[in-house]
Amino acid sequence: MKGARVGARATTSGRAGAPTPNDNKGDKVTSTPKAEASNRDADSAAEDEVPQVFDVFTGEPKVGEV
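The chain above was modelled as a monomer; its predicted structure follows.
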């Protein structure tokens, strides 16, 4: 019974302790790429929407027609 209690404590403490530094590092690392990706996506979407309008029936791009 003593071994089971010690093992359970070690497991729970390990699980509780491990995610904290990993999450902090993950937030710091992923925050920058997410910001860059969102800016790139927004820029590319804005560029694509304005000049490229495709005809629904022919599929040809319309330039200057809205």
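Helices lie at 2-17, 19-49.
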